[in-house]
Each structure stands twice: as C-alpha cells, then as structure tokens.
C-alpha cells in the first residue's frame, strides 16, 4: 500500500531551510561590505567596497540559532501573544459574532437590489477591504498591523462562504500588494531614494500607475479563487483545516442574549476618561503621509467626543454592540497612532490589551476570570508565536556564518556585460532573491542601494528605475518567504500550514514577478516623469 504524500509541518519546513542555510556557510566564503563616506563638492557620497573574510561555518549553532531567532523576533512574538489574549477576551463576549451576523443580515437585504446582487455583496466586500489595506501598505507600509486584522477577517470570510486563505488575502496579501506598488512608503521608497540621492517620492505618477495595475491583478486573482471556493468549498486546500473555524461558527450560532449590564457603563466611563486624558495631552495631531505631514487640530478630542455619542447608543442597544464600537475605535486609534505618533508593536500591543480589558470589564468579569481568558488566548495562539521564533533562526545562521554580504556580492556580479533591460531585470531578480533572506525593506535598502545606484550609472540605467527594481523585489516575496515573521504570524493565527500556503501562492508569485518585470521595462525604454 502506497503512503499518501502529505505536506510537511511548518516546523519541519523551517528547520529544513535552517539546515540548508547552515550548509551554505560551509560552501560560501565569508564576506563583508565596507562603507566609507566622503564629502565631494559639499555632498556626502557613500562608497561601498566588498572584502572577503575568513568563513565561519555553522554546525551546532543550528540549535542556538533557534534561541537567537526568538530573541530577534521577540517583538512580533510578544505582539502575537498579546493579540491572541486580547481577542480571546473580546471573542468570549461574542461581540464579533454579533457583528458578523449583523453584517450578513444586512448583506442579505442588499442582495435584493438588482445591481448589488449582480455584483455580489461578497465580491464588493473583498474588493473594498483589499483596496483599503493596499492603500495602507502603499502609504505608510502597513505590515505587522495585519496580524491583528487576521483574527477578524478570517472568521468573516468563513461566514461568507469563503475560506481562511481568502480572509488572509483580504488583509495580508492586499497590504503587501500595496507595499510592492508603494507610492509614499517612507520605510522603503523614502530610504531607497534617499540612499540613491533622488528627490524623495519623485516619480510618483508612474508608481501610482503600477499600484493600480498590481491591485487589479491581485484583486482579480483573489476574486476568482474566492468564487471557486464559494461554489464548492471542498475545492479549498484548507477545507479540512477550516473545520476549526466552521465548528467555531456553529458553536456560536446559539441564541445570544442581548443585554447591557451596569459593568458595561463602567467600562464606557473608564474608556471615555482615558480618551479624554489622551485628547488633552495631544490636542493637535501631525499626520504623516510619505515625506509630507499636515496637522489636524483637535483630532483626538473629536474622536473622543464621537466615541462618547456612538458608544452611548451602542451600549443602550446591547453590551455586544458597545464592544464592537470599542473594536472600531481601536482601529481608528491604530491608524492615527501609526500615522501621527509613529506607534509600533509596543504601543499597538498596549492598545489591543486595553481593548481586551475594557471588553471583559463590560461583561462584568472578575480579575480571575479576566486573567484566565487572557492566558487561554495566549495559549491558543502560542504555536503561531513559536513558528515566528523558529523562522528568525534562518537569518541568524546566515549572518553568523558571514555569508549574507557574500550572497549579495555574487549576485551583483551577475549584472556585468548585459543590456539595460536585462540589467534592470537582473537587479530586480537580485532584490527578489535577497528579500527571501532579508525581508526587512528598510534594512535591504540601506544594504543594497549604495551598491546598485552607482552601478546603474555605469550601465546607463536611471537610479529611479533601480529604486523601482528594489521596490518590486522587496514587496512581492514578502507573501511567500518563510523568513518573514509577519507572514508566519498571520498564517499561524489563521491556522494555515506554511506548506499549504506555499503550494497555493507560488504560481501567483511567479505571475506577480513577471508582472513586475513588465512594469520595469517602461522605466528603461520610455521617458517617464521623474525617471
């Protein structure tokens, strides 16, 4: 009897990649880029020179790399555990279930309208949500924040007749499609253009065109897949694994008792006091989009005042709608915090923890019950956090083996002696390959642009085209590389094994990479503004 082939466990895949990288440290020589800054005609010029070093082959360090990987990815790991605990506290109130049921009831009423029925409410929701997250990715580089939305969008997708992959695509894939077609992302475009000596966010017109094209392609791909799953749920590679989410929906289909305990009003007052204090401390907010900023006076006071009104009527209706209002305003504060106050994982973790605490207080939970719920949520999501730490060991092995710069140097040599179109294509492939090893866009920009920009001058390719090659190479493979802690965290929360995700997305990745190359050709052959 033949053994049925099965997809390896995510832990097995990641450990196999670590072993492969360990072998590379025995094959490749060590290397290091030395950066020297000199002033020429009053302008700071950065020169980069590669030097070989003694190799540092790794062996037993495979196991210590796992520990270092956890340390390296500690921020994301803690963020995942905090999100897991906070949303378990919210979910225990069944407020999200109420929100999903209310949405589905509204959607069924909208289906009675002819043109809405023709387009499909589900299709409209997917398109609108994907465009929103893609815009966030293009403007301020949303990535880690998508982890929090996974817990909301996956159950929603399941309830609408889709699968967990569709839910992940609505947030994570969309945000990174926007990341690849970024127009104003300061963490990628801003740094890359600065390192290349270009005016910040120049060439915006063609970048906007690329963003539109990439999003049309991604949305069509997701819509076609989502419709296939809706017609026949068993066509989904996650059909068996999604039984967890379907069972969860069935468990929550029991009658919900709509009520408003006194504790909900206590939570309302507490939240309002915190928002009022925050509004008094920060009466004006400077919002940053790309390299520009604008001040919105009394933004936080207005948000606090609107919460006082909206949450009051929501609480009168039911504690569940009050908690949904808390969730909605948490998202509002997330956007304002990221764009106006440069919030990151630490602040976002605190924000969602406050959401969980206020939700439990509203339900009248004691301190012991509240603590138990948080621990249960963190325990439920622990496997996802562990995977993120394991994936961090990949880059640790390559860095400790001193072969990261060697890989970059060997790749850059491949550009010698080819034409302009081929050169920009090779740059693009190099950036794509490097992103699998170094998923951080800002780190990769600082590492590669001082090398690529001067080289592009020698071969007659504009530095703007070189930045776009970096931009596409940085964005697309974020959706597939196991070294991305955010991707692994999102998949863990959605309970999608990495092997299944890889098998599902690799063809889409090839098409995206080809699309990126086609979009690069005009940067060489056409006279584009900013290029």
Structure description:
With 531 residues, the protein is mainly alpha-helical. The protein has 23 helices and 4 strands. The strands form 2 sheets. A two-stranded antiparallel ribbon has the order 1-2.
For the secondary structure, the number of strands is 4
Give the CA-based shape.
globular
Structural class: mainly alpha
Low-confidence stretches: none
- The percent of residues in helical segments reads over 70%
Question: What Rg is obtained from the alpha carbons, in whole angstroms?
Answer: 24 Å
By DSSP (H or I, 4+ residues per run), the number of helices equals 23
Distance between termini? 62 Å
Strand order of the largest sheet: 1-2
Overall pLDDT metric = 83
Write down the secondary-structure element order. HEEHHHHHHHHHHHEEHHHHHHHHHHH
What distinguishing features does this structure have?
531 residues, mainly alpha, two-stranded antiparallel sheet, two-stranded antiparallel ribbon, 23 helices, 4 strands, 72% helix, 6% strand, globular
Structure in a nutshell:
This protein has helices spanning 10-27, 61-72, 74-91, 95-110, 114-119, 121-140, 146-159, 164-180, 186-195, 204-231, 243-251, 262-281, 299-317, 319-341, 345-362, 367-380, 382-400, 404-413, 420-437, 441-459, 463-476, 485-494, 498-525; strands at residues 30-40, 43-53, 284-289, 292-297.
Write the layout of secondary structure elements.
Layout (H helix, E strand, L loop, with lengths): L9 H18 L2 E11 L2 E11 L7 H12 L1 H18 L3 H16 L3 H6 L1 H20 L5 H14 L4 H17 L5 H10 L8 H28 L11 H9 L10 H20 L2 E6 L2 E6 L1 H19 L1 H23 L3 H18 L4 H14 L1 H19 L3 H10 L6 H18 L3 H19 L3 H14 L8 H10 L3 H28 L6
Antiparallel strand pairs: 1-2, 3-4
Helix pairs in contact: 1-17, 2-17, 3-15, 3-16, 3-17, 3-22, 4-14, 6-8, 6-10, 7-8, 7-22, 8-10, 8-21, 8-22, 9-20, 9-21, 10-23, 12-13, 12-15, 13-14, 14-15, 17-22, 18-19, 19-20, 19-21, 19-23, 20-21, 21-23
């Amino acid at each position: 009897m033949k053994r049925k082939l099965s997809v390896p466990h995510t832990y097995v895949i990641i450990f196999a990649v670590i072993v492969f990288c360990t072998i590379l440290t025995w094959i490749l020589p060590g290397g290091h880029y030395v950066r020297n800054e000199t002033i020429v005609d009053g302008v700071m010029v950065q020169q980069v020179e590669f030097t070989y070093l003694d190799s540092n082959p790794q062996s037993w360090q495979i196991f210590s790399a796992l520990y270092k990987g956890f340390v390296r990815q500690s921020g994301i790991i803690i963020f995942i555990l905090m999100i897991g605990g906070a949303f378990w506290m919210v979910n225990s109130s069944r407020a999200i279930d109420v929100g999903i049921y209310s949405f589905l009831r509204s959607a069924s009423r909208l289906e009675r309208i002819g043109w809405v029925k023709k387009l499909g409410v589900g299709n409209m929701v997917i398109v609108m949500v994907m465009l929103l997250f893609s815009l966030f990715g293009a403007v301020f580089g949303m990535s880690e924040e998508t982890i929090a939305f996974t817990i909301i969008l996956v159950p929603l997708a399941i309830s609408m007749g889709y699968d967990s992959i569709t839910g992940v695509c609505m947030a994570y894939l969309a945000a990174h499609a926007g990341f690849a077609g970024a127009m104003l992302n300061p963490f990628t475009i801003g740094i890359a253009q600065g390192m290349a000596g270009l005016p910040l966010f120049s060439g915006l017109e063609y970048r906007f065109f690329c963003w539109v094209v990439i999003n049309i392609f991604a949305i069509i791909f997701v819509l076609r897949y989502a419709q296939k799953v809706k017609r026949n749920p068993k066509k989904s590679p996650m059909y068996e694994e999604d039984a967890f989410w379907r069972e969860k929906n069935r468990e929550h289909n029991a009658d919900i008792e709509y009520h408003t305990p006194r504790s909900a009003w206590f939570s309302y007052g507490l939240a309002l006091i915190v928002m009022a204090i925050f509004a008094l401390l920060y009466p004006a907010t400077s919002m940053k989009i790309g390299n520009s900023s604008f001040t919105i006076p009394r933004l936080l006071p207005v948000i606090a005042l609107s919460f006082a009104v909206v949450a009051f009527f929501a609480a009168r209706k039911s504690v569940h709608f009050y908690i949904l209002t808390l969730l909605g305003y948490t998202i509002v504060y997330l956007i304002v915090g990221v764009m106006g106050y440069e919030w990151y994982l630490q602040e976002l973790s605190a924000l969602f923890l406050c959401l969980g605490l206020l939700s439990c207080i509203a339900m009248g939970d004691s301190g012991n019950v509240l603590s138990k719920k948080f621990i249960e949520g963190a325990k439920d999501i622990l496997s996802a956090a562990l995977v993120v730490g394991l994936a961090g060991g990949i880059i640790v092995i390559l860095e400790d083996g001193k072969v990261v710069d060697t890989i970059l140097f060997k790749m850059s040599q491949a550009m010698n002696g080819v034409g302009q179109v081929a050169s920009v294509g090779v740059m693009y492939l190099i950036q794509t390959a490097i992103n699998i090893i170094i998923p951080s866009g800002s780190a990769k920009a600082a590492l590669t642009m001082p090398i690529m920009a001067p080289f592009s001058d020698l071969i007659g390719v504009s530095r703007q085209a070189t930045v776009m090659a970096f931009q596409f190479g940085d964005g697309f493979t974020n959706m597939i590389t196991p070294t991305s802690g955010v991707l692994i965290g999102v998949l863990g929360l959605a309970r999608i094994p990495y092997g299944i995700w890889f098998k599902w997305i690799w063809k889409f990745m090839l098409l995206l990479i080809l699309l990126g190359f086609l979009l690069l050709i005009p940067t060489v052959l056409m006279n584009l503004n900013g290029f």
